[in-house]
């Protein structure tokens, strides 16, 4: 799959073929752009590197800040002022935006620093990014887990230079800059410098080496050189007193002369940054090719975990790129926590947990279970040191934990790991923090009043108690299981007599978008709506069956246009993520045919090739991983150890599930196409045995095997009788005496 990845997908405004049929009735409120970047990345690594224009929200590209509709243009063409590190991936607004240590190759004076050059040629593949600037300089960058290597090819010039700006961070939009609080920078040897900047409370250290031995090496401040200077120290920096500062190498170049820069990064000081650079890039010059080859090999290993049979190179490209985007974040940085001294797992860039917990974290658990366990332990370590399981977590210190977006979302991830039985997590320790976290922020209101507003938190917390009961049952804490069961049942308090959530405030969306979440007791949920037919009628209205096509928001839509759109109470076509589970809710009402139709319409209309190939923010891989699962004919019910089965979009697929192959084969398959009919499941066999139920357990999926799905052009009776399971709460393991109660105080 490596050769089919196109990292440019999602970097520009959505540009998909006109939607038809059901897809034409969906309304997209969020910005119509994927917000990805094509820079060099490492699977779940700490570092990324890309061309920097200051655009929203990654630092790459052409667009200004936007919250709805078409993105406004900041640059009318692709430009760059240099190359930065630590970009976000597919997010929307998350306050600050990294982009530290900008490297600018120049042929002019230092006064020109900050100007932009046209990007006249770009190339990208997993682990590699290259661009030629209109100055004539060719720029290439690759990364390791905690390092980056740049390679610049210069034209002939009497005084070329490489300038590293230690003061720059963030974006070139109002309130988008990141100002370092403190900074220290020093030349330690010819071609070698070390330094540290403290940004949003996080100390980020760097060791940088340049292999141009005949060039001059100088520090600079406020665009003025400091010949002979060896250190810059700033103990307190305010936005009003900040002047740019950094490091520069300069000298004459012959045509085609190559200069290499190597960066080692650490959140624990320059000594660790120095060790990282030596370990990942070696001790000498010309490390670029070696580092690129190593990173490419790791990407190939990860991307080869999914393979499909398709005659369409475009569709293979969309899948390969979706898989790639699913493996970029979060950033795993073992032994790098800057906030507590103990070694062990650490993670950041959990910037959209409210999106990735449904699809991306189950995909990581399936494909790279060892990294999923590492992430789980990192989350628990954060809770140990900071007092809560984060809803989001960045390379920043403070209370910016995104609590308004959701509650108890890490609980779903932990419950899946526990149910599958992956080794490496101390579940007694996990249960302490899961229980404690449920009583924080909105959890207090939930305990006192039976529900919390925003009302979506009521669903989060009730499900969090259900997930915690799974862990309590595993460790034999019967008292906690019995305590959690009635609390898990409080999800019913969120719904009104019309079968939808009660009026409340909502984060991104409305009550219709959140009303079809896959709760742990869907049988009771459907009964609350009036039964199968009434529940299906609500879903049909939501998905636009029988509705007229809609017009999508344009540039800077006004309040009336947005109000009218939200008044449709319509599925948002994965332009926004709160309702990404909703297509599978039909299966709990015995209508897998409807799931097949909606998923087919999404897959065929909402994803494509080219820079405009995503319908909305990729949200750290949450959107892309939805596509991976959906096209495989599987969908994870997060936290419930279930995978719903639907018609796949590939004749045959293979998934490496933790080292065990799972093949998904079909009979009666017809290549899908936009505007064409959906296919419906007629029969399913798992390892040769008929499967009447429309789901696999987590144990079955993680055990590997052969899934054979028979398809046909008309709905069948398959999946209409045996529904996915509904349960009020887990029971403790058999044989655990009622008196067992572990002391967790």
UniProtKB/TrEMBL annotation:
Any one GO biological process: carbohydrate metabolic process
A Pfam family hit: Glyco_hydro_92
Segments forming domain Glycosyl hydrolase family: 272-712
PANTHER family attached to this UniProt entry: PEPTIDE N-GLYCANASE PNGASE -RELATED, PUTATIVE-RELATED
Ranges of residues in domain Glycosyl hydrolase family 92 N-terminal: 4-167
Annotated region (Disordered), positions in chain: 712-745
This protein's record includes keyword Transport: no
Top-level taxon of origin: Bacteria
TM region(s), chain numbering: none
Molecular function GO labels: carbohydrate binding; peptide-N4-(N-acetyl-beta-glucosaminyl)asparagine amidase activity
Protein name (record): Glycoside hydrolase
Gene Ontology cellular component terms for the protein in this record: cytosol
Biased composition (Pro residues): 725-736
UniProt keyword list: Hydrolase
Amino-acid biosynthesis is among the record's keywords: no
